[in-house]
Structure formats: C-alpha cells, structure tokens
Write a structure and sequence with these properties.
- The complex is a heterodimer of chains A (559) and B (249).
- Chain A contains 21 helices and 2 strands.
- Chain A has 559 residues and is mainly α.
- Chain B is an alpha/beta fold and 249 residues long.
- Chain B is built from 10 helices and 11 strands.
- In chain B, the strands form 3 sheets. In chain B, strands 7-8-9-3-10-11 form a 6-stranded mixed β-sheet, with helices on both faces. In chain B, strands 2-1-4 form a 3-stranded antiparallel β-sheet, with no helix packed on it. Chain B has a two-stranded antiparallel sheet with strand order 5-6.
- In chain B, strand 5 and strand 6 form a beta hairpin.
- The model of chain B has no long low-confidence stretch (mean pLDDT 88).
- Classes of the chains: A mainly alpha (559), B alpha/beta (249).
- Chains A and B meet through helix 13 and helix 16 of A and helix 2, helix 3 and helix 4 of B.
Amino acid sequence: MNWKNVLLLISIGVKSGRLTRGQRLRRYRERKVFQYLMYGGACVLGVLIGLVAGIFYTGVTDPVMKTLFYQGASYLFLSLPTLILTYSLVFTMMGQIQRMGVRASVQPPYWLPLTWGEHTLASTLANLIGVPLASLILFGSAIALVSVYLGVVPLAFFTILAMIASAFLASATTEILRILQVRFIGAVYKSAGKAAVWVRFLGSLLFLVTFYIVWFTLSSGTSIIVLIEAVAGVQQAVWFIPYIWLGLALAAFMSGLPPQTAIFSLASLLFILVLFYAAVKLNTRFGLYEPPAITVSRGAYIPKVGFLGKLGFSSLEAAVLRKDFRAFTRRRELMYIFVMPLAFILMPLMQYAGMLGMPVAPEASPLLLAWVILAPGIITGVFLGLMIIGQEGGSVWIHFSSPITARSLVRCKYVFVTVFSCIVTLACSITGILLAHPSPALVMVLLIESMLLIFALGAVSLRAGIKGADFTEVPRPRMFKQIPALINLLLCLITALAILSPLIPYAVTMMNLPFPVLLPKVAIYVAVPISAVAALVIIFVFYKMAVKNAEDFLIRAEL
Amino acid sequence: MMSVVKRYGDIVAVDHLDLDVEYGEVFGLLGPNGSGKTTIMKMILGLVKPDAGSIDVLGIKAEDDPVAVKRQVGYVPESPRLYEFLTGLEYLDFVGDIYGMNVSEKKARIEEYLEALELEGREGDMISSYSQGMKQKIALISALMHKPRLLLLDDPLSGLDPKSARIVKNLLSKLAAQGVTTIMSTHILEIAQAMCNRIAIIYEGRLLALGNMSELRQKARLPGSDLEDIFLKLTGTEDVREVVEALLK
C-alpha cells in the first residue's frame, strides 16, 4: 500500500465530491482556512456543548438528578457508535446518490500505477469527508470535554475510537453496496430486456423513497431520542450482528468486563478488515464493469401516428414532447422530479401515520390537506419550468440547428411542465382526499387554485429557465444558473401570494389561531374568480416573455 | 459571406471573411485548431450572429430567417452530443419529425441509412451504449435523412470505420452531383484533397488561401506538393522537425 497514492486519491475524491455538489474550484491547491472551516466550526460547537453540559452537571446538587444525568450520558456513550454508523451510512449513501447523474468519472485511471487496495481505501476515507467527519468531530469533542466533568475519560476515549471505527465501517459498507449495485443493475438490465427502462425507473424511485423515509425518520427530533433509547436497550439482544459489536465492546468496558471488551473489540477489528478486503476484491473484479446496453426495441421500425398530433400539436412539437417524456423516465438525474412530490407528501403522510412523533388526525388539519394538494404539483411545476431547457445539456445543439421556432419551443415545453404537474396534483389530491375526507367544496377550491398556480408559476419559471439555462454537464448536469433560479423562486412566491390573496382570509380562519385576526373576506365564489383573473394575467405576460426570451435563445446560441 | 467579422471579447474569431460557395460544390474549410472554422459554420446556420458583414444561405439571409435556413440544412457538429437516453431509432424518428418528414418517407430513409452504415441490429439499443463511431453515424444519418440542400459537416468522418467512411465520401460526391452543397471541415488533409472541389485555408479568422488544388499549389509556390505541405507552409507551422527533436531530448 502506497500511502502517498492514497492521500493523493483522497484529495481527488474530495475535490470531485465538491465539484459534484456544484462548488467551483479555481486552483488545485486551495486556502486551508476555507477547507477546514466546517471541521473547525464542528469542533468549537462540540467544545461548547461539552462545556455547557459539564457545567450543568457540576451545578446540579440533587443526587437523583445527578444520577439521571449520568445515566443519560452513559446511554448516549453506548449508543454513539451505532448512531454514528447509521448516520455515516445515510450520509455516505447520500454522497453516492448525488453522484448518480455525474458524467465525470471518479474512478482512478486504470492505466496508472495504482492498486485497487489504494483506490478502495482512498474512496472509503474520502466518502467520510464532509458531514460524516464533521459529526465525528462534533460528538468527539463534546464527549471528550463532558467526560472530564463526569470522570469517565477512559470511557470517552474508547467511545471516540469506536465512533471512528463505526464511521469507517459504514463507509466500507457503502463502498461494497456501490460496487454490488452497479453489478446487480447490470444483471437486472440484461435479464429484463425491453422492460429494463421501466425496471430502472421504478427501482430508482423505490430506492429514493426508501432513502427519504429513513432520512425523515432519522432527522426527526423525537425519533432520535427513541432511537438512542432503543439502541442502548436492544444492543445486547442482537449481539450476533457484527455492526453492533463496537457498541457491545463499549458496554463491556463500561461494566468492567475486560475479557468481553477484548473479544468484541478484536471481533470488530476483524470485521472491519473483512469488509475492507471484500470491498477491495469486489473493486478488483467489478471496478471497471460497464452495465450492458439497454435494448428498448427490436425488429422493424414502425412509426406511429401519434396521439399528440390528434391534439393539435405539430409533428415537431409532438417529437419534442415525446423526447422529454423519455428523458424524464430514462435519465437518472431527472428522475428526481418524480421523487420531489413524493418527498413532499411523505412528511405529512408519515405525520398522519405517527411515524414522526404523535400522530395527527387527518380531519384535524385542513392546512395539512392544503399542503398535500397544493404543494407537490406546484413545486414540481416550478422546478420543471426551471430545468426543462437546461436539461438538454450538450445536446441543445439539436434544437439550435433544427427548424424549431421560439413559439413552438415554448409551447411544447410549457405543455410538458403543466401537464406533468397537473398529473402530480391529481395523484396527490386523491391521496389527500382518501386520508382526510374533506368537504367537496374545499377540494374543489384547492384543485382550482393548484391548477391556476401550476399554469402561472410554470410560465414564470419557464421564462426563468430559458433565460438562466445552464448546459454544463460535467461533472453533473447543472440545468439552471443559481442566481436566476433564486430570483425566480422569490418571484414565484410573490406571484403565488398575489394569486392566493383573495383566499388568504379563509386560510387564516383554517389555522385556528389563538388570537383573533380580522381580515376582510369576500365570498368564495367571488374570491376564486378574482384569483383566476390574476393568474390569467400572469400567465399571459410571462408566456409572452418566455417566447421573446426563446427567440433570443435560439438566435444567440453561442455555445 | 461578405466581409464577415465575429469577435469574442478581444479575440477576433472571424476577420473580414469573404467566401462564395457554389451550388453542388464540396467545399473544404481547413485551418489549425481555433482558427474559426466552427464559428463560420455556426454563422452560416444562423446560430452565431456576426458582428459585421452579411451571410446569404441558399438565397436567404441567415440572420433574418434562421428557421428557413435550418429547414434546408443538415448539420453535424465537431463532437455531436446526441440524446443518449434514446435509442438510435428513436433519435432518428425524432429528427424526422423535427424536419416534418412524412411517415412513409421517414421509415424508408431510416431503414436505408441504418442498413448502409451497418447499424442494423443495434438500432434498438440506447445511444449511451454506442461507440463514438456509431454515434457519428447516427449524427450523419440525422443530417442527411431529410434531404437537405446544404450540408454543414464539422469533421464528418471522425471515428468512422473505413467502409462507412468510403460510403459517406461516395454519398457526398453523388449528392453534389444532384446539386447538394457541402461545406466541410476536417483535419485529415488527404480526405479534403480527395473530396473537395475547392478548399479555403483559414488562419486566425482570416482567409489565407482559396481555390482548387492547383490554385493552392500556385499560391504556396509548391508545385506538385500535397495539401499537407501546402497547409503547413501557408499557416506557418511547417517547422515541426525542430519541435520533434526538442521533444526527443
């Protein structure tokens, strides 16, 4: 193992990760201050937490309270390795998800004199850099300091070691899963044949939804306390799971059982070595594996007279619409658009089901219902509008060199954005209606308003998407420039408020505020048409602006 | 193309260029990297607006009606990025629809071209799994299938296997005989010498020489020499021996 190579590969991995997240790097060597700012901040925060906890513990005079605090801290120490393992797993997986649509390869060039062992170690360690390492520093510095006040310095030292080992364990596991995933996906494509596109689409959605459920559960405040208690309590029962051995070693150390401490520590070390060895072997075998081609059709070409043509679209517009539909179901980086609405309704659904603390009765919260009906479709519309031009990437030359007019381009893109978002709204509305059993009048108003907002904000965002399109694809597709996108979000917020303004008094009433708010109310059958007129004006103005911008865009295609 | 100028900041990409290409001509644009060939092609297509001068394409001013120009042009950029999530067949179907081809014509032409360029059997695979040469073939088919009157080809034979390259070369000659004009750029000077009726040598945005092979030889004062020697002499890059010797030290 050449450690210099490992260090060089780690620095490459870190830089590629930061480029993937959209950060610009100007020089290979950067200012250390900015590079280590997050870790420095985590350390300072950890020291502060430790200091506050320690001073609090010293100040407590009640012996019962003191024992309770000590017990709580012990629980935390015990569960930290497993918690760090879980969080590191989530964060390192998140890093892998971020790289899903990345074009630039992060594999070391296989013709360079590097071994797979060096690559695997560097990749495993580089995965940890960022949030996982910052959490380690935060928890490590906090418990190191608090242990001085509690008088458990050796335990804290052992806990920190166990935490570091847990993070490495998590990252090695992610590395193994990443390699297996590539190989498994290849095998699935091969056996799925023509259905491979749909298998990939549904598989990616399922994976992302599962990931979000785990993430929401872990990031929910009440769940974390439940998790700490559960981890500390059930560790002994599931001793046969190797991932728990570090926690068990810690428990044995705390109970003053040296033989068990030594056994579980050695077993953990062995398990880490086995995992790393497995990752190296898998990388050696499948590191350069290319998944097989996806065959979508075989046999003679049968052109179809499209349904879109019957709806009045020209062959050109229908072709662009069909192409965009295929793009969103086949390009991994665009599949997020399907996950986005799911992520938006997952939170309320998990809240209804009591997965995030106390369950909320669906009927009790009309605002939650409004969120379920309004938010997913509208947010989808805003983001689709922003990205629908930029997602063309380097292939945008096809539009530039084809005889497409600005009017046609805007028409088909706008139709795609609005139809897609309306379908999302309908699907989410059905879920909301089934859960909350709202009155037909409320559903009708919410549906009308969501359609108005989709069409209006879709036009606003499409204009911004044309003006601020970013066709950069390496290391990952950017699709839109950040500053115009932020301005657009602000504009969308103002536009939405303008459209919804006649209905705001009704929303305030639904909130059941503890203090009275007197807002002038107009009858609902007047408020909705006023809202519609406002939306129509916005649609007209921004659609015209989008066409004008598209004219400039197609003429000044100086790529 | 009359007295066309294009600047990118301080860089003059095209400097007062006058070019006249005849109908049915295979016209070669040659020049070192960064000499302005691609910019010239993009200006002809109406993708880049010249800062000065005017461009007339098939009787249409490219600036005034770029869509009308694009309808009559087939374009292959230097490194064509295709929609990799589509299959070869879907991509060609898409392009056919973009140019408003009727269904039967589209079907017949796609099948003919796929067979001629030996892509049969892989047309149903996603383009992401194609080799560079296969992608180039798809890009060429998409430029040719709607029977354009003008072909703008930026290094069209790059990555093609010898048989496909020969098919494309012969096809371009036959199309020229039918009145289709081709403007192509290439770095493979033997191809330019073999295919082009006339050649323009561009250097730093300026026209250094223009004419057929004998006119170029005259201009370079290199009788009997090939295009490579003429090109290197005119562009002032003939001192390659010194560079090689320095590298070998």
